Amino acid sequence: MLSDKVMYIRDLADCPPSYLDDPGRREFFEIVWLKDEEALHTPQHSFQTLRGDWIYLIPPYRVHQLNKAGKKGSLLSFKRELLEDDLKTFLLDVFRMFNIQGEFSCLQVNEDNSKGLKAIYDLLLIEYSKEEKNLIMLKALLKVFLLQLIQIKEQHFTLQDINEKRVYKFMLLLEVNYLEERDTNFYAKELGISSKRLNQILKEKLDKTGLQLIHDRIILEAKRQIIHSENTIKEISFYLKFKDRSYFSRFFKQHTGLTPQEFKVSVKDPMLKQ
Predict the structure, then answer these.
(1) Is 60 exceeded by the pLDDT of residue 63?
(2) Nearest to 252 by CA among 228, 239, 267, 233
(3) Which pLDDT band, with edges at 50, 70 and 90, does 67 fall under?
(4) What domains can be seen in the chain, in order of their start residue?
(5) Local confidence band at 10 (pLDDT 50, 70, 90 cut-offs)
């Protein structure tokens, strides 16, 4: 169902079970917009109400099985390739908004923000529903929708405590530096705190250490390269700064349970373990 698509939009009530089980789903960024509903998770912040509009941002390869059954709202999924031609600063804003180190990111949307998002979403839905879709129009409307979400995320950021801001900055630093810097000390120094303190904060907020998050980011890029690039496993290992293919293969299997080659085969054959 998703193999020939770069975007997928559905009302949550009409989302078929086949979407949830589609192997191509892992390649999509997902936006789940709950409308006038209770949150699907336990929020870390002190919100005025736990009922309202919630937006869940789920990055690729982290297809989180949030229980959306019976919930009112919308689903908007899209592939990274729709954003590839945009400015790097915009792409980084999108990546950090989706919190690519965790299972998902969540925003509570107030009434005014919800109205603004709905106006853009409605235009996007109209274009998406056409038999002859205009890809340029879809990309433009998607970008405006994402820019609105980034603005909402920035508003949330100003309300966060200092440690949440450190996590946020760590993730941005990681996105820019993970190919070259794989030592937690580098990130701690950039944040002006000790490595021990950084690990304590990351463990508290994301339940992972700095090194685990660095490794997660490398694996995420490795999967993307294996699936989407024409590079050989050896070329991918060098791109990811491993000294040789065998070291990369051991690292990949340690974190995924599969060798890079086995993962490549499993992507082509969804019946195999992913």
Answers:
(1) no
(2) 233
(3) low
(4) 7-157 (2.60.120), 162-268 (1.10.10.60)
(5) very high
Tokens for 224, please give them. Answer: 């993307």
- CB-based contacts of 144-150 (< 8 A; 24+ apart in sequence): 144/120, 145/76, 145/117, 145/120, 145/121, 146/83, 146/94, 146/97, 147/90, 148/113, 148/116, 148/117, 148/120, 149/31, 149/55, 149/57, 149/97, 149/107, 149/117, 150/93, 150/94, 150/97
> What angle separates helix 210-228 from helix 184-191, to the nearest 10 degrees?
110
Q: How far apart are CA 177 and CA 214, in angstroms?
A: 10
What sign does the dihedral 110-116-118-121 (CA atoms) show? negative
Whether the CB-CB separation of 32 and 70 falls below 8 Å is answered with no
Q: Tell which wins on pLDDT, 217 or 168.
A: 217
Give the span between the Cα atoms of 83 and 69, in whole angstroms. 30
Per-residue model confidence as pLDDT tens digits over 77-124: 999 888 877 777 788 788 878 875 566 788 888 888 999 999 999 999
Percent of the chain with pLDDT over 90: 47
Q: Is 253 exposed, middle or buried (0-12, 13-18, 19+ CB in 10 A)?
A: middle
Instruction: Pull the structure tokens for residue 90.
Output: 């915009």
CB 201 within 8 A of CB 191: no
